[in-house]
Every structure is written in C-alpha cells, then in structure tokens.
Write a structure and sequence with these properties.
Layout: H1 8-15, H2 19-29, E1 34-35, E2 41-42, H3 45-59, H4 65-85, H5 88-156, H6 159-165
Antiparallel strand pairs: 1-2
C-alpha cells in the first residue's frame, strides 16, 4: 500500500493555517517530517492527524507549545508501551482497523472537498449578482444626479426664460 504524501501548501490549505505556522510547529515541537530529495516537506496522513491534534490542543484547550510537546511525548511513550505489550495477531487487527478508519477519513475528506467546491461556486454566483446590483445602483445614482443638475439649472434661470421656453 503506497502512502500518500502532501506538500506544505496542501497541508496548510487542508488545515486552514499558514505555511509559516506549519514550519513553526515542526521546529518548536520537534516534529519529524519526511523530506524529499529537494528537501521539501512531505506530510503523511499520520502527520496530518498529529497536526490536527496539535491544533486542537492549542486552539480548544489553550495549551502552549511546551505543554503540547510534553503531551506528544507522553502519547508516543504510551503507544510504544502498548505496541510492545500486544501480540502480533492483535497488531494485524489494529492495522486493518486503522486502514478502514483511514479510508473513512479519506472519503469524508473527499466529500468535504466536493462541498467546498460547491460553496465556492455559490460564492462566485453571489459575487456576480452583487456586481450587477452595484452596477444598477450606480446607473440610478447617475440618473438622479442628472435630474438634480437639471433641476438646479432650471432654478437658476429667470422666470421670464422659463415662460418663453414653454
């Protein structure tokens, strides 16, 4: 099974954060992100899950980077201990469950991407409608200004010129 890797721009868009935030988190939390031959970062699904957890701890729980680093360290130790204690057959079951879960997450992600595209189309349609409405408003304002100017010109004329004009 080939593992899918994402570049930093894709991950930043998926997590709705800036690329510099990802680089900051990698540096401060000492995350081990795989790199390609050009030294570009390659994020795996596991890395994405870790980053989602980090953002949840940071944004929802209010933890700082030091506390997050400690929490990640504790999780790694607990995982290693649990894996060492499990027999090989249980690991195979966990891998299968993990594969199923990853597939579900990927399907949900695909669905979210489709919904995102639909929302983007609706936004674009609304922007077009708003531009047309603004254009009509500008035309009405121009028409009102012309009427007002004509009225001002008529006020400045003498009563005699008004009578002779009719």
């Amino acid at each position: 099974m080939n593992e899918v890797y994402y570049k930093i721009g894709e991950v930043a868009e998926m997590l709705n954060i800036e690329q510099y935030t990802l680089r900051y988190l990698e540096h401060t939390l000492r995350l081990k992100i795989k790199r390609d031959e050009r030294s570009d970062r390659l994020y795996s699904e596991s890395d994405l899950d870790t980053l989602r957890l980090i953002l949840k701890l940071k944004n929802e729980k209010g933890l700082n980077t030091t506390a997050i680093r400690m929490a990640l360290g504790n999780m790694e130790e607990a995982t290693e201990t649990a894996l060492a204690a499990q027999p090989a057959a249980a690991l195979d079951v966990n891998v299968k469950e993990l594969a199923i879960t990853v597939r579900k997450i990927a399907d949900q992600n695909d669905e979210l991407l489709i919904q995102n595209r639909l929302l983007q189309q609706k936004i674009e349609e609304l922007e077009v409608k708003m531009a047309k409405r603004d254009e009509k408003r500008e035309e009405r304002i121009d028409e009102l200004i012309k009427i007002w100017r004509k009225e001002q010109d008529d006020r400045n004329k003498s009563w005699l010129s008004k009578l002779t004009r009719k």
